[in-house]
Amino acid sequence: MKYVDEFRNPEAVARLVEAIRQRAAALPPRQHPWQLMEICGGHTHTIFRFGLDQLLPDNIEFIHGPGCPVCVLPQSVIDQAVALAQRPDTLLCSYGDAMRVPGHHGSLLQARADGARVQVIYSPRDALDMARRHPDTQVVFLAIGFETTAPATALAIRAAAREGLTNFCVLCHLVLIEPPLRALLADPDLRIDGFVGPGHVSLVTGNAPFEFIPAEHHKPVVISGFEPVDLLQSVLLLLEQLQQGQARIEIQYRRVATTQGNPGARAPVDDVFEPAPLAEWRGLGKLPRSGLQLRPGYQAFDATHLLPDSPAPGTLPTADSTTEADPRCRCAAVLSGKLKPGQCPLFGRECTPDTPLGALMVSSEGACAAWYQYRHQG
Ligand code: SF4
């Protein structure tokens, strides 16, 4: 299959691994490994699935970043979604990945088993169609994701506004990639030497959210595709920059990503949304201007108005999302690259894909789920 087989070619992988080995050997010696953070959960999945971390020399290490939208969903948003699903005459529409994320009082899947109306959908348009077909039902779309999913959500809201649909609204937890990266780079306990950037986010945003990394922190970024050869090429490009003492953004994923991104995809987002003063991230806490909220002209589509204790615009729920249900849970440390999944005391015991206690065990893009699926021996 074009664009797949050539990027999984074993000879190409072997050549890249040898080039990485030579490049890594030329790096200045130091006590701890050179740490490369793959920002995106899709990359984390590829790394574990193909064992790419095991192909790297000892002085190079992947650490896993916060770019999995399900993993950063705070429990309080799940609580809100469950509360909305339990309202009479209401249908809560969600991507399948979010169904099993545990809130303080259970997941959407459990709520559905208890009688709440919850529907798995594949795109915001599916939720919009539900609202069109069922005018007596209040349809709530749980909008999650980064800059990649925001355009489709914005287009659905604009269509609902155009059609005068009053039974469609959105529980919005759309987030932006730059603020969590700023938070990670401000953490003195983290030593990140370079970043593997998310190619699909760059497809929309271009280089803009990553420009501060070389400019303010003098660290290289390589925007990468999602196949093994993509990721290994990206590692090689990062090592070349590190060896030469350079720090700039390079695009490995040239078949998709561009420096400027896609202004046509950003336009509806800018029309419908504005940065919220504060948004909450599981594991990272509250980060300023890190999420999107509806602009005043689209407030009619804000599902939080349906909640009994509707929060003020720009503030996300009051429950402390950084507090996990089990105090032994180490989701926050894994999400910020400080721990490997297997170092959490719950991993593979109480917390498994069948019994997830943390969000990182729910999504296939979560570091714990990927580690469990491809690395855990039982
Ligand atoms: Fe969180 Fe479970 Fe991973 Fe521990 S094993 S960090 S509780 S998802």
TrEMBL record:
The keyword Iron applies. Keywords: Iron, Metal-binding. InterPro entries: Hyd_form_HypD, HypD_1, HypD_2_sf. It comes from the Bacteria. It holds the Pfam family HypD. Transmembrane segments: none annotated. Belongs to the HypD family. PANTHER family: HYDROGENASE MATURATION FACTOR HYPD, HYDROGENASE PROTEIN ASSEMBLY PROTEIN HYPD. This is Hydrogenase maturation factor. It comes from Marinobacterium rhizophilum.
